[in-house]
Amino acid sequence: MGRKGKKEKKGRGAEKTAAKMEKKVSKRSRKEEEDLEALIAHFQSLDARKTQVTETPCSPPCPRLNASLSAHPEKDELILFGGEYFNGQKTFVYNDLYVYNIKKDTWTKIDIPGPPPRRCAHQAVVVPQGGGQLWVFGGEFASPDGEQFYHYKDLWVLHLATKTWEQVRSTGGPSGRSGHRMVAWKRLLILFGGFHESTRDYIYYSDVYAFSLDTFTWSKLSPSGPGPTPRSGCLMSVTPQGSIAIYGGYSKQRVKKDVDRGTQHSDMFLLKSEEGGEGKWMWTRINPSGIKPTLRSGFSVAVAPNHQVLLFGGVCDEEEEESLEGMFFNDLYFYDAIRNRWFAGQLKKLRSGWRRRTRKRTAAQARVQRGVMRIRMWTVGRVARKRKAATAECAPLSFPFWMRRAVTHGGTQGAVLQLPVPACTELADTRPRTHGAQFKGEGTEDGHAMTKAFFQSQFKTPHD
Question: Could you say which of 315, 343, 371 is where a domain stops?
Answer without folding.
Answer: 343
